[in-house]
Amino acid sequence: MTSLRSASTARRRRAVAAVGAVGAGLLVLSACDKPTPISTITVGTSSVSSEASCYADGDGDAKELKTAEVTECLKKDTAKDSDVKSIKVDPDENVRFGVDPKIADKGWTILLNGNPLTDSTTKTYRTIPGSVFFNAQYGAQGDSTLVSIKEGENDITGVWSFRLKKDS
User: Fold this and answer.
1) Which 3-state string (H, E, C) describes 97-122?
2) CA distance to 69, 73, 107, 149, per residue, from 99 (Å)
3) By the 8 A CB rule, do 53 and 159 touch?
4) Which segments of the chain are extended strands (E)?
5) CB distance 65 to 73 below 8 Å
6) Pairing with 152, which of 14, 85, 126, 160 sits 20 to 30 Å away (CA)?
């Protein structure tokens, strides 16, 4: 009889602890900023995802990023100590870009070192040969390049940046 009570009590304590942990997690999340849509780069079986480094979500006064804000964002992302996510790219592999449907709805463009590499699209993915990102003809320099995704055709509302590192 004692073993049944102790097992029942232990289950009850675990249930209360689980409910408490979930409640605490929700409380912590409610205090955070609203997350931005995600963009992802995939090369072979590796992928890396990121939230926007600059984003105007339409809440409050900011409905779009000013040109100076976009320039500053890209400049910050090119700094050696920036926290831009990176991925190794074999020039013989394809690089696949995927964006959240919220980004695709507004149109998005791939930038190579701040310059447009592609036309704007409303698809949720694009594929580009890896060799492009290390070709001087397209503005690449050396074995590492900054690739950004710009949300919006005329009114820019977000920028996501990644560092591609040549894997040869």
Assistant:
1) EEECHHHHHHCEEEEECCEECCCCEC
2) 21, 19, 10, 9
3) yes
4) 39-43, 46-50, 54-55, 85-89, 94-99, 108-112, 115-116, 125-129, 144-151, 158-166
5) yes
6) 85
Q: What tens-digit pLDDT sequence spans the chain (168 residues)?
A: 555 556 666 666 665 555 555 554 544 444 456 788 999 999 999 999 999 999 987 654 558 899 899 989 988 888 777 789 999 999 999 999 999 999 999 999 999 988 999 999 999 999 999 999 998 887 788 888 999 999 998 889 999 999 999 987
Q: How far is Cα of residue 47 from the mean position of the Cα atoms in its chain?
A: 11
Q: Which single residue is written with the structure tokens 């105007």?
A: 56
Half-sphere exposure of 118 (CA within 13 A, CB side): 21
| Gyration radius of the chain's alpha carbons | 22
